[in-house]
Amino acid sequence: MPRSPRPRNLSDPRLLAFEILQRVEQGAYADLALDDVLRRRGVSDPRDRGLLTKLVYGVLRKRGRLDYVLARHCRQPLGKLETKVLQILRLGAYQVLELERIPPSAAVNTSVNLARQVGLQRASGFINGVLRGLLRGLPQLVWPDERKNPLDHLQHACSLPRWLAKRWLAVYGAETAIRLAVAQLQPAPLSLRCNTLKVSREELLADLERRGIAARACRFAAEGVVLDDRRGLEVLPADWFQVQDEASMLVAPLLGVRSGETILDCCAAPGGKTTHLAALGDNRLAITALDLHPQRVELIRAGARRLGCAGIEACVRDMTQSADFPAPAGFDRVLVDAPCSGLGVLRHNPETRWRRKPESLGELSALQGAILGRAAELLKPGGVLVYSVCTVTEEETGQVLEGFLAAHPQFVLEDLREVMPQWAELCDRQGCLSTWPRHPFLDGFFAARLRRRI
Ligand SMILES: C[S@@+](CC[C@H](N)C(=O)[O-])C[C@H]1O[C@@H](n2cnc3c(N)ncnc32)[C@H](O)[C@@H]1O
């Protein structure tokens, strides 16, 4: 007689991780799915919350490594397995290979139990067999050699999809590509942008120190703080900071806003850079913040309210369409922080590496070009236009820029090494900001500053 499914412990981190990974498989964003589960299921024990976060992000980041090892102990190709079974195998393999504090036998047993809890008792013997085989084979495990076979090393040891491994190898060479890929396997540091409308970075750091919470100033971003202790998020007043990666904090200052100016932020949601611009302008700017999605425009408004930003008007607009609003050539400065592949923010959104396909880069490039062209019409002669993306693929950076400059001879590219000499080491040969590959521990951001001739 088949055994009946085990009763579910609804706050079991492994069960919740399995559910989240299933949702991600169906298209959800890992961070949103995780937040949603933490909120609705009330996982109160901080250790359970920690394990759940580790399991979800770890499996997504290291999927390439896990699959390499699992494939050696599974008679069928992994692609032929039922997705739910593969997910449980990955969760089990992740605990065996990467979580030293979980005894390997416990990792196997809890995986078998998990299979029973989710109605996969028929696969529990198979899961047990594969994971026990993996355990036995661990002493013989050899990763592809980084010198002899850097492509396989990037794919399997560094967990990149093969197409991306090939690209990075071609663009950066083996050593740099591997350094970059290894850095993207680490969790991102928790960095905050200090809201200078309310507090200075020195005051914020001093406050954290008084509370015994370890934190330090970011290296490049003037308002940036890295928190070594997540408790900082709970003790600081909510209007003192915005969670934001250091590389993302480098974009708004490139506009060089001045008090009283009119600013257009074309792709503004959720508003990290809009609120940064408001702070840089000391709340004395008129900022029009647009985004395609109404629910995301709400996020801009909520962020502005929380941080005490004035002068922001947030509206729903499709920037690829020629609309009657905003008025042509009306803005002193324009930011196009365009929708992109997100291949520079793999530490924050680890599912992107598996979701993104090389075919989509051409479409994104066309979309970015269309938005940039429309944005250019809205800038005053003599004004500054900043184009930025959280990726560094040539299609979405150099090619967009080249196409734009060819079609808009009234624009010139400015050299950011002159505008921001303190960030010269973050700039490429054209004088555009390009954090990778020199700084693999920042997110991969690209930004170019253009000026419209008078
Ligand atoms: C990289 S995100 C912007 C991040 C934002 N600047 C920040 O710092 O918080 C790109 C945004 O572009 C928006 N978007 C996509 N297509 C658009 C379009 N055709 N017109 C306007 N916004 C668009 C997306 O909804 C998304 O919010």
Automatic annotation (TrEMBL):
Pfam family for this entry, one: Methyltr_RsmB-F
Reaction equations catalysed: cytidine(967) in 16S rRNA + S-adenosyl-L-methionine = 5-methylcytidine(967) in 16S rRNA + S-adenosyl-L-homocysteine + H(+)
Biological processes annotated in GO: regulation of DNA-templated transcription
Active-site residues (renumbered): 390 (nucleophile)
Amino acids binding S-adenosyl-L-methionine: 267-273, 291, 318, 337
PROSITE patterns: NOL1_NOP2_SUN, SAM_MT_RSMB_NOP
Domain SAM-dependent MTase RsmB/NOP-type: 180-453
Gene Ontology molecular functions: RNA binding; rRNA methyltransferase activity
UniProt KW Transport keyword: no
Subcellular location(s) per record: Cytoplasm
Keywords: Cytoplasm, Methyltransferase, RNA-binding, rRNA processing, S-adenosyl-L-methionine, Transferase
Enzyme Commission number(s) from the entry: 2.1.1.176
One GO cellular component, as annotated: cytoplasm
Principal location class: cytoplasm
Enzyme class (EC, first level): transferase
Family per record: Belongs to the class I-like SAM-binding methyltransferase superfamily. RsmB/NOP family.
Chain's role: Specifically methylates the cytosine at position 967 (m5C967) of 16S rRNA.
PANTHER family linked to this entry: NOP2 YEAST -RELATED NOL1/NOP2/FMU SUN DOMAIN-CONTAINING, RIBOSOMAL RNA SMALL SUBUNIT METHYLTRANSFERASE B-RELATED
Protein name: 16S rRNA (cytosine(967)-C(5))-methyltransferase
Native organism: Geothermobacter hydrogeniphilus
